[in-house]
Design goal:
Blueprint: H1 2-10, E1 20-23, E2 46-48, E3 54-59, E4 63-65, E5 67-69, E6 73-78, E7 84-86, E8 100-102, E9 117-120, H2 123-127, E10 146-149, E11 157-158, E12 165-168, E13 170-173, E14 176-178, H3 181-188, H4 191-196, E15 197-198, E16 202-205, H5 224-232, E17 259-266, H6 272-283, E18 291-301, E19 312-322, H7 330-350, E20 352-359, H8 363-370, H9 373-398, H10 408-417, E21 437-440, E22 452-457
Parallel strand pairs: 1-10, 2-5, 2-8, 3-6, 4-7, 10-13, 11-15, 12-16
Antiparallel strand pairs: 1-9, 6-22, 13-14, 17-19, 17-20, 18-19, 21-22
The structure holds 2-acetamido-2-deoxy-beta-D-glucopyranose (NAG) (2 copies).
Membrane topology: Single-pass type I membrane protein
Keywords: Cell membrane, Membrane, Protein transport, Signal, Transmembrane, Transmembrane helix, Transport
GO biological process, one term: receptor-mediated endocytosis
Length: 479
């Protein structure tokens, strides 16, 4: 079994449309971004978890704490050498005054949010941070992908979905790779699994690869609207104003883009992965460095008067977008032209039958292409006059005849960008909520081998009792 598994793994690169997806947000205690104060708790702080929430938290180093209020349901995983000790109340440098410090809402991280995934073609690309550009719908795991939760992290992911079952090829948690659905289901419904995965969708591990070398559907079409609305939340800048006059709407993307799209019709010989590699090899060199490219299979709905679109014809959609914001779409359009030329000369060797190019036009295109000589003379003259006027203005400002005013818009923008206080987390922690059963890792499934898990299950709220954590020394490893 082992060797068979290994062989299929090494053949992975020839499989169409399978990518590696790494989940980004963690719920580690020692990650400063997880705390409302933007720092790790000091020993004089009052540490709080939102009471009505469940979370699994990994602690990576020894902690001295005065007071900690636990969530309703949760677990604390202690790495090697990590543990708790009661603070003697002496202040540390930089930690003078004890404050309330609260763990941020761990329910905010949604599976169907491209912000929370890194995508790469291989594990080594993931490690080297060579991430792939994707359209938004493919910015979260597709059905034939390998999903990785980083070793040494705890996490919580919201699986709310418009489809009941979210298929993936494999899933790795804490270095354990699940390739069998039974094994993963067992984990998903374990105490730890229930703290890691919430929401109304559930993950199924299929361990199947895409068998169609022309590529497979991603499988996220039904969650398109969910993906787009998640993406929009908390990042107002994701959909910037577009600078081209007729932006394009790629299938599977949330916003319109400036750039170019090529649609390919293909024959049985066509191989998506090798064509994608070929494009990268031939074109994405120095000249086109700023261009993002996505090559996917889409089902283009045929325009017909039928109410139900019956025959959706699969096409290959090549999307080219300029990263550079100054001249949007120009480099991408140039690249698209080159790819079209290449297809004309040797497209048949790749199994390409037909190609159709669409470009977003921008002001530069219009200046260069569609204008007659008279208009250009007019524009040049206009620009010359404008330059004279600006020159005059600068002269007047420099000589002190006009006072320059800093526009108030600039100031407002600065203010807007300043860090805003997190909403006060006064959720009413009335009592220390250590549960009636606090125990060390009996059911941690070997996942965090060598690490201790403390599971907290609340008794009646209002139950007060001695905190067992602070009476034991957990620095000893229990292997
Ligand atoms: C801390 O969490 C943030 C967001 O969840 C993540 O981007 C970052 O990589 C984490 N830091 C470390 C050191 O893991
Ligand atoms: C999950 O809940 C959402 C509402 O939050 C709903 O739109 C969706 O259909 C539900 N999905 C399933 C599979 O029940």
């Amino acid at each position: 079994m082992r060797s068979a598994h290994f062989i299929s793994f090494s053949l992975f690169f020839q499989v169409s449309g399978a990518l590696y997806r790494q989940w980004i947000p963690d719920t580690n205690f020692n990650n400063a971004t997880n705390w409302d104060k933007g720092r790790i708790p000091c020993e004089n702080d009052r540490v709080q978890f939102l009471r009505d929430q469940s979370v699994s938290v990994l602690v990576q180093s020894p902690l001295n704490l005065m007071e900690m209020y636990m969530p309703l349901d949760g677990e604390i995983i202690l790495s090697h050498g990590a543990g708790f000790a009661a603070s003697d109340g002496q202040s540390e440098s930089g930690c003078k005054r004890g404050e309330d410090i609260t763990f941020k809402d761990p329910n905010q991280y949604k599976w169907y949010d491209p912000k929370y995934w890194h995508t790469a073609l291989s594990m080594s690309d993931l490690e080297n941070e060579k991430y792939l550009f994707t359209l938004d719908e493919e910015g979260v795991p597709c059905q034939y992908d390998d999903v990785i939760f980083r070793p040494g992290t705890s996490f919580r992911v919201d699986l709310d979905s418009d489809i009941q079952i979210i298929n993936v090829k494999t899933i790795s948690i804490m270095n354990r790779k699940f390739a069998s659905n039974d094994e993963f289901a067992e984990h998903q419904w374990s105490n730890t699994g229930k703290l890691q995965f919430q929401g109304n969708g559930s993950i199924a591990v299929t361990n199947t690869k895409c068998e169609d070398k022309s590529g497979c559907e991603c499988g996220n079409f039904d969650n398109h609207r969910r993906i787009c609305s998640n993406l929009q939340q908390g990042s107002e800048n994701h959909f910037p104003g577009l600078l081209c006059t007729s932006p394009l709407k790629p299938q599977g993307h949330c916003s319109k883009v400036c750039g170019a799209i090529i649609y390919l019709e293909y024959g049985p010989q066509f191989d998506l992965e090798s064509y994608r590699a070929q494009l990268g090899f031939s074109f994405l060199g120095l000249k086109y460095e700023g261009v993002q490219m996505s090559v996917t299979k889409v089902y283009k709905k045929q325009s017909s008067k039928k109410i139900i679109p019956t025959d959706a014809v699969p096409r290959i959609q090549i999307v080219l977008i300029d990263e550079v914001k100054s001249a949007p779409g120009t480099l991408a359009a140039e690249l698209a032209e080159e790819i079209m030329e290449d297809i004309t000369s040797r497209g048949d060797t790749f199994g390409i039958i037909n190609a159709e190019l669409r470009k977003s036009s921008n002001s530069e295109d219009q200046f260069g292409g569609n204008m007659n000589a008279g208009k250009i003379v007019g524009i040049v003259a206009g620009a010359f006059i404008a330059a004279l006027l600006i020159g005059n203005l600068i002269y007047l400002i420099a000589s002190g005849r006009i006072r320059a005013k800093i526009s108030s818009a600039v100031i407002k923008f600065r203010k807007y960008n300043q860090f805003e206080n997190e909403e006060a987390a006064d959720q009413g922690f009335r009592n220390v909520v250590y549960g009636s059963s606090v125990h060390l890792s009996p059911d941690s499934n070997d996942l965090y081998s060598g690490e201790n898990t403390i599971t907290i299950v609340t008794g009646q709220s209002g139950t007060n009792f001695a905190n067992p954590l602070f009476e034991q020394d957990f620095n000893e490893e229990s292997c």
